[in-house]
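[recover] target loaded
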């Protein structure tokens, strides 16, 4: 029976990132709009307090930031500071319901303000943390694949897909993430993106797609934030596609690399043990089965599609560096030659393919 994944990106981390971005945005906007002080220095003093509140907010000193904001009389706000003040006050609301309400008021009051995108992302995340997934997805629907070019927009795409996934639409979430790949691959949000893709793929009964997303995550972000969760998810996905040996190797890697993590405890609870001779799942090495080599990419891709339709996992087309270029069709990711050979023999018996075993 296929196991469902239970790992999730950290909601607390998501909120901290949103708050930090908000503070940086305020600082940038203030630098562009700050007016000069009046003769009594009153305007400069109020700007200074607002700047100090923003800095405290960005450093995670919420109580200090709230106290500084409270010390600024609304009637004495400098001209041009109203938007910054309202935005910062909304972001510093001290409980979930108040935060949601304040952000909604801010967006209604300043629909074209300089912080509207940050506020929309923060509102979507606040709704998500409260378990209001449909509302979060609706709020974040202003962010669309193919048009988001900045940090805020890319984060919002990941959060929008997670909200869709959390409300139970795994197939739709996976399709959404696929459509956003060009926006997110190769960006600072790539790690979170691939982990989110893996979660959607597992819940959409596409474990092979989850394996590919997790492989990319672990190869490109070996020391990233999602290490133990991604390795554990990889192990569960490998189990789901009938590769128990590789799954056990991935579980062992969780225990070896992250011995104090929650995921390592879960692996130990499954009876997995680490010995000096225990094989681990090859993230960047191991072996593959090569079943074809072509001078034309379209022929290689046609064979790759046929293999996927036949239920073969981890199928890829690798472009060679020689001249003329050769496109090689490969399948699997195995820790030993014997495991790779077992797949090759199955393909030979069932499909008549010749094959070779190659380093991954």
């Amino acid at each position: 029976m296929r196991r469902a994944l239970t790992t999730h990106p950290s909601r607390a981390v998501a909120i901290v990132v949103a708050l930090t971005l908000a503070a940086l945005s305020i600082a940038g906007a203030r630098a562009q709009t700050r007016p000069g002080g009046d003769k009594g220095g009153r305007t400069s003093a109020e700007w200074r307090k607002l700047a100090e509140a923003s800095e405290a907010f960005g450093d995670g000193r919420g109580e200090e930031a709230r106290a500084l904001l409270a010390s600024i009389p609304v009637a004495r706000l400098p001209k041009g500071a109203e938007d910054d003040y309202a935005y910062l006050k909304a972001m510093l609301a001290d409980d979930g319901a108040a935060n949601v309400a304040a952000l909604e008021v801010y967006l209604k009051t300043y629909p074209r303000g300089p912080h509207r995108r940050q506020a929309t992302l923060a509102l979507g995340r606040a709704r998500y943390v409260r378990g209001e997934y449909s509302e979060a997805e609706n709020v974040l629907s202003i962010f669309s694949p193919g048009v988001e070019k900045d940090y805020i927009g890319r984060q919002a795409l990941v959060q929008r897909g997670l909200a869709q996934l959390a409300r139970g639409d795994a197939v739709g979430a996976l399709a959404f993430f696929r459509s956003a790949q060009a926006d997110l691959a190769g960006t600072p949000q790539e790690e979170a993106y691939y982990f989110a893709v893996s979660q959607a793929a597992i819940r959409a009964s596409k474990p092979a797609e989850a394996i590919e997303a997790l492989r990319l995550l672990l190869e490109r972000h070996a020391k990233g934030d999602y290490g133990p969760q991604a390795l554990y998810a990889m192990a569960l996905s490998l189990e789901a596609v009938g590769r128990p040996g590789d799954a056990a190797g991935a579980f062992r890697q969780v225990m070896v690399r992250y011995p104090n993590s929650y995921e390592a405890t879960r692996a130990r609870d499954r009876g997995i043990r680490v010995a000096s001779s225990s094989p681990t799942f090859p993230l960047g090495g191991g072996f593959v089965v090569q079943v074809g080599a072509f001078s034309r990419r379209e022929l290689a891709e046609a064979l790759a599609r046929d293999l996927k339709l036949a239920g073969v996992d981890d199928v890829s087309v690798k472009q060679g560096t020689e001249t003329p270029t050769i496109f090689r069709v490969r399948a699997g990711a195995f820790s030993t030659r014997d495991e790779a050979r077992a797949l090759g023999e199955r393909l030979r018996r069932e499909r008549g393919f010749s094959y070779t075993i190659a380093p991954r």
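[recover] notes: The chain has a mean pLDDT of 82.
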